[in-house]
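can u pls check wat happens w/ aspartic acid
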Amino acid sequence: MHKTLITTLLCLSSFASLADNINNPTIEILATGGTIAGVASSQTSSSYKAGKLTAEQLISSVNGLSNLANIKYEQVYNKDSGDVTLNDWLKLYGEVQKAAENPSINAIVITHGTDTLDETAYFLELTAKTTKPIVLVGAMRPATSMSADGPLNLYNAVAVAANKDSTGRGVMVAMNEKIFDGREVYKTNTTSVDTFEAPNDGPIGTVFMGKVEYKSKTVRPNTVNTPFNLNGVTSLPDVAIIYEHVGVNTEMLDHILDTKNLKGIIIAGVGDGNIPSYEKDFLTKARKKGIVIVRSSHVGSGHVTYDYNNLDTTYGLVSGDDLSPSKARILLMLSLMKTSDIKQIQEYFDKY
Ligand code: ASP
């Protein structure tokens, strides 16, 4: 009797979420590893191996997923996201595109390590050519941990992907009951489960026990509305990041210019994308070599003011808007596949 009541209540709660869903959705889960698939030797150990559980094991550990959608899955790779390479990104892009072009799949969920999840989200937001929902999800605690956050995060991510209001929103991240736009989201805390934030814009919605509520939509063009197309692409241009600080060694900077095939540099500037004046020779030499330089900031939030300290007009630099250095690098890599004209690249940074 007691058991029947619990079953009935569980069914009622899944109907409540299903009412907001695409009709009978099929969702492909692309598993790439991370702590969500991590395994530790005890429930309270802080040392563990990321990327151990398979997609199948991950999915079978989450009760109620099949109430939300028909689930298909693919193991793209299984690694700590700190080890993800540009080739891995191209592989993931290929899998996303395959699922996007498959008429029997309505939406895509990507399980991912949290260390570089925000970068992958923006990479796909600029390149995936689909209006189908793409939702990235991870966990801060390994699957074997006491109060592991992965199962509920994955359940919620599938609910977001299956929701009828999720179409046309580009790439999203669903973590710890919040929904973020893939461009705006950043990991902000090394260990907390509440690590993902969008410092400039805030979350676009919430997801609580599978119940999705949107409160805003990104205004930046993404996915099908960007000019960046990776069809047939086998490598991405080399772009380095320089982190500014007190007393930069300019001799070390000069060595960067010897890097073969270096096409771009992101300056993770201080404050408003500021660059020490004693780096002016370096900037001039780099520009003479045809290297495109984008000014960003390592402050963590806010926009970089165009031509701060006359840097952009004096040296021919691009101002990186409100992108973090690592996200500015992604947009510069994709921009460099189309042009090295800094006026055009500035337009890309103003828009995407
Ligand atoms: N090192 C892990 C990873 O990024 C951390 C995590 O997933 O939370 O794969």
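The mean pLDDT is 95.
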